[in-house]
Amino acid sequence: MELTRRHFLKLGTAGAFFSSLGFDLRPAMAEAKGLKISRTSETRSTCPYCSVSCGVIIHTLGDRAANVTPTVVHVEGDPDHPINRGTLCPKGASLRHYVINDRRLTKPLYRPPGAAHWHEVEWDFVLTEIARHVKDTRDRTFQSRDEKDRIVNRTLGMAAIGGCTDTSEMNFLLVKTMRALGVVYLDQQSRL
Amino acid sequence: MPLELKALSATNYPTRGIRETPRVCKLIDVSTCIGCKACEVACQEWNDTPVAETYPYTGSYQTMPDLAHNFWNLIKFREAERDGNLHWTMAKYQCMHCEDPGCLRACPAPGAIVQYTNGIVDFVQENCIGCQFCIMGCPFNVPKLSPRSQKVYKCTLCSDRVAVGLEPACIKACPTGCLQFGTKRQMLERALKRVKQLRAQGFSQASVYNPPGVSGTHAIYVLPFGNRPEDYGLPRDPSVPWVVSLWKGPMKTVGSALLLGGVLAAGLHYLKFGPQRVERKD
Amino acid sequence: MTNGWIDIGNSDVILAMGGNPAENHPCGFKWVMEARKNRGARLVCVDPRFNRTAAVSDCFVQIRAGTDIAFLGGLINYTLSHGLYHEEYVRLFTNGPFLVKEGFSFKDGLFSGYNPITNTYDKTSWQYEQDARGYVKQDTTMQDPGCVFQLLKRHYERYTPEVVSQITGASVKDFLKTAEIVCSTGTPDKAGTIMYALGWTHHSFAVQIIRAAAILQLLLGNIGRPGGGLNALRGHSNIQGGTDHGMAYDKLPGYLKIPPVSHQDLKDHLRENTPRALTPTSMNYWENYPEFFVSFLKCMFGSHANKENDFCYHYLPKIERDYSWVNLFDDMYQGKLEGMLCFGMNPVANGPHSNKMIAALSRLKWLVVAECFETETAQFWKAPGIDPTTVNTEVFLLPAANFAEKDGSFTNSARWAQWKWKALDPPGEARADQEILSSIFQRVCKLYQQGGGTLPEPILHLNWPYSNPANPSLEEIAKEINGRAVADLKDEKGEVILKKGQQLSSFAQLRDDGSTACGNWIYCGSFTEEGNMMMRRGLRDPSGLGMFPGWTWSWPANRRIMYNRASCDAQGRPWDPTRAAIQWDGEKWVGDTPDYRPESPPEAGLGAFLMLPEGVGKLFAPDFAEGPFPEHYEPVESPVKNILHPMVSPNPLAKTFKSDMDRYGSPEEYPVVCTTYRLTEHFHYWTKHITVNSELQPEFFVEIPEGLAEELGIKNQQMVRVTSARGSVQGKALVTRRIRPMAVDGRRVWQIGIPIHWGFAGRVTGPLANLLTPTALDPNCSTPEYKGFLVKVERV
Amino acid sequence: MKPKRRRKRVTKSVACELASHAPEGAEIQRYNLRERLIHWTVATSFLYLLLSGLALYSPRLYWISSLLGGGTNTRIWHPYAGVVFFLAVSIMTVNWRRCLWLYPEDWEWMRYTWSYITHGEEGVPESGRFNAGQKTLFWMQALSGLALLLSGVVLWFPDKFSWEGLGTEPQPYSPGASSPGLAGILTHEVFAIVSMGCITVHLYMGLFATPGALRAMVEGKVTEAWARTHHARWYKRVMGISL
């Protein structure tokens, strides 16, 4: 849900007039500093950190016109949110740096066995390789029946963990796909 | 809530405009501060004050020993034993926005420090000449010089936000309601109510910190142990340093009078006695 | 959480124990402050450290890490012996009047039925006396010595203030002060809440701590009431959603069970999971397990699932033992696994015994990590002290989008499923996790289609109804989770209530005949024909209690307070009219969504706890591993013997491991109790990548009490080394008065604290706290014992 | 001290300085090039200090900073000018230390100050190269200069001279009056006023009240009559007229 921010009138004249001898500084004083979020796009989101799940507003640069690549310029609490009512903790308040961060991963990385460094690779390569590994491991370690000849239909050589940092929908998809693959080693942060 | 000027540094002519604006105030209820530092981050985030890449460990939970040119809002952590009970006090520290600001009085650059009618004392870096007199004039040791820009910075009470009807960033962020914002009257009322509550809870010394030495401030505190402001990192009886008062007051007058008097005396002397001609004896 | 964050503002007494909400949930803690300011509520903090919650509490008591059951047992005893319990509530809404079978006993730290060889309990002697119809015999006067209430009294008699003090290290005075405040809410006009988090769950008897708290809250009549409840604060924004959607080895979405090996067909499984009502008034809602389970299978396998093939029951894997986290890594360490997919998780940092985690990972053939940042897990092969050339694991590190770069819902600990919107695209080539997962899965499908392989059907028959199979939209998945009618749904009169293909609006519409498909029954109603309920932003609050029924959507059925029937007396009138969750208006229950049959009059006396076969809250719970009543056991690594029963000192059922890396320390060698914790400035292992947070808390440190520092000659900011039986960490000392020495059983015991937020990957690095933590598990939920283990401290 | 010995030394010094002997009726060299260079260095730096100082001293005069390149430039260059000024004055002091020393006859002269001011020439003792008024003015100026330099350094580097900067315990709560910076402000202000007072007198005397004085400092020469009138004793010594 995006709301267009109200357009705040700029106060005073933007171009301040300085008389040559600096006698009158009043116009400069009367000019309010521009509000940095007055023309940003607002997106309602939820803080990804703790389980209070505070509402946050992400302010992105630009009005989403075709030629704009938005970046986050500010994050603030969502004052409408009944729990946090606009407030945030020091982690939520620094969310901008979580999104815009020079340490973010931007390329798939691959580390062959025994290598001491990462290799930048293409998506197609990693997806193909992973799919092959998944299938091979499943085929190799799939157990249809246990030692007592009971149907178990499970993949014992593969584990999947994760989810708590992601959406419920992603969690569901993870459970759905992993159970279909027969994975029994399935767990997440809730146990930790 | 448009900003209207009340006072400009180093300016003799009247600056006060005709619009009436409510006087704003920040209330810091120390008894509800959990030291989460949301205000510290909100301040940095809103004001885009970048931080250093290397960080010294202070040996306590406190972020840094003192305010900095790019850190205008600091929670001071102190462990104190009172009546056999351990108290871990956390109190936010920032510009107090004095009604009678020592910084503004000490500043020699016209318009580098302004006071709006709503009570906000703001530094206008475009006009700042970097002389640091404000630092000496401040009884709270708040303004800090940026080594890079050679200008002085401090909390603006988010004048840009307040001007368009938003609350300061720290106030908005504060999760526990320890920080509140409104008119000075409302905040004083609220503070007194809270003091009453605290006294009923056994904090017999609870009081409001609104130091009269600077004619009151636009950031006021509720202190559970109001008799010991030092425990919260606040000065006991802050006032504009007498040197600043003397310097910007009587001394300016007397000095100017003396100088002007000297020039006048010289003129008079010239008129009455004229120059001393050389004797022509030969 | 049984209640919710805002509801804490309705409390009179708040006990923060086993959690540090001021530090870890500041925005939720706001409501504690509101309660204090608006209601004059009192906040009690019980913790091993004087933390930020303690700083603003009315009463702080320091206890030794891992002695929570002793403290809570003391509170239970105080409540019972001083007659402070809410008697009518206990009679109406708990199993206090239930009679327990004759043979039940407790002696020397063990309940009846203990088998020392298998180290398990035979629970038959813990069952209720039943009458001819199979219903539980009751004594409503609660005087029968065999009734739960009397058994409870007897069990906790031993927890006198003196004993509590000896075990926990808190003084008798402090304990009594706490007890007086906490146990003051056993009256209809008072409500008290308990806030807990990982300080309780990180023990080898974690579940029993929470059980003890539940018993206390039931005795005080606080469950189901506004301002009451037992509130798990939880640690991650969507940990609740993850749990709800079955991200656990033994669960399926909606807390359905992954079939055990013993259930060889669907009928078995449904029968074994459909409980029988234990009282005539029990609603026993799990009775509907077949509806939920079949609808889930329909959702999974779509048209392939039909009655004839048991709805593809055998496409699901079966389990026969614990495959949870620590077992997973133990098996991995033993070389039993080949590969792992890891989405947004960092086991090296957050599992116990990091060194074992690293050793385990290096025995994998392949590892896939999808993350925003390069984590310790992704780069485990270059961890300090590891020679990368010796590690043969193939590692794929996939750049993932973060929260702002995708939409979807997070469910908070108050069960609110809240939709969020996408703000911008992921950076560079980063992709959303669902796209990564689907792309992998689609490729796996293709491989199976092309080259066959072992049992390809579950994969090829998996229902994949998304418009872009390689990148399903989360909205489509949300609709799938909610569920839809597979055929026209008709009511008893034969009238169509929902047409084929329409979204379901309530789990009451679920069928076990395959005519409905539902991904997660508890989320049924979250995305109906009216649209996405999780997007709602209504701010109406008719009750004035902060329930906000129009704000997003809360499971189950948009209910904000669980067990809310218990907030009213037998006649359906609220215990406290100023805080009415629901009430009977003569025709139906009004207020919050009732946790009850909406039209059932109070006179019908239907049980208030509708999910339980008992129909009432369980003071006595025969279904937990180590006993129906919580008993104090020492942590696996403890400085002292259990003074209640020295022969059974730690939890007899606690699970420990036997590999060469699993070592446990003795108090002689490791005399100091250590606990790990979070700081408010950091989030888990994420924010060490962020400058701002790293500035607020720049470095790993060790919180050491002043007296211990003096003994060891340590000054503030000096480097110290903390060593456990498993590893050691070095950091600067933070010498503080906030942790005090304790007299435990006549001995002086020191405690130290270690924050967890650092690791070897990040903008700022530091030692992993989990290098120290033990691999000891709770028998019920397999949570490791991160809190309260033994270390030694030295100056470097 | 023995006056006799001192006298002797002075005589020698003056003789040294005035090597060139002007013929009767012609002009006398009063200041050599080096002296004039130093004087004008002092004067220029003082003028800059005066203007920039005035800009910072009073808001009414802040406009002067515009002439000097703006407030920030004014603030930046003022202390450097101060250092130049102080160095030049130091050289001047060393050079003129003897002719600027206050001797017993100067104390005698001072008794006739009023008479000197009112041109009531009666009884004003003849003066040497500089009269006692000039000497006093110089010393006041030099001492102010020293005080301004010292206090100026404190104001130049306030962080170094804060309590923290000085290595003592931080005292952020003591009202600022006790901080070295504030002492600096007070000192700087007082001596700036003294200094400005002195310069007023000096300028008046040099530009208006004593025709020929400016020429002496520009061209270095004075007429014999001028010398006789204003510095009779000096004149006689230069001319070799016995005392």
Walkthrough of the structure:
Helix content of chain A is 22%, strand content 23%. With 192 residues, chain A is an alpha+beta fold. The longest helix of chain A has 19 residues, at 123-141. Chain A has two domains: 26-99, N-terminal domain of TfIIb (Single Sheet); 109-191, no CATH class. Chain A has four helices and eight strands. Chain B is α+β, with helices and mostly antiparallel strands. Chain B has one domain (5-240): Alpha-Beta Plaits (2-Layer Sandwich), CATH 3.30.70. Chain B is 28% helix and 18% strand. Chain B has helices spanning 38-47, 102-106, 133-137, 159-163, 169-173, 184-200, 242-248, 250-273, and strands at 5-8, 24-29, 74-82, 85-93, 113-116, 121-123, 144-145, 152-153, 179-183, 207-209, 219-223. In chain B, helix 7 (242-248) packs parallel to helix 8. The N and C termini of chain B lie far apart (83 Å). With 796 residues, chain C is an alpha/beta fold. In chain C, strand 2 (42-47), helix 3 and strand 3 form a beta-alpha-beta unit. Chain C is built from 21 helices and 35 strands. A six-stranded mixed beta sheet of chain C has the order 28-30-29-35-27-33. In chain C, helix 4 packs antiparallel against helix 7, helix 4 runs parallel beside helix 10 and helix 14 crosses helix 16. Chain D has a two-stranded antiparallel ribbon. Chain D is mainly α. Chain D is built from eleven helices and two strands. Chain D has one domain: Fumarate Reductase Cytochrome B subunit. Helix content of chain D is 65%, strand content 2%. The chains are: A alpha+beta (192), B alpha+beta (282), C alpha/beta (796), D mainly alpha (243). Strand 4 of chain A pairs antiparallel with strand 14 of chain C.
Largest interface: A-C, 117 and 164 residues
Q: How would the global form of chain C be characterised? A: globular
Please work out how many helical segments of chain D DSSP would assign. 11
CATH superfamily of chain D: Transmembrane di-heme cytochromes, Chain C
Q: Largest beta sheet of chain C: what is the strand line-up? A: 28-30-29-35-27-33
SS-based class of chain D? mainly alpha
Helical content of chain D stands at: 55-70%
Total number of beta strands of chain C: 35
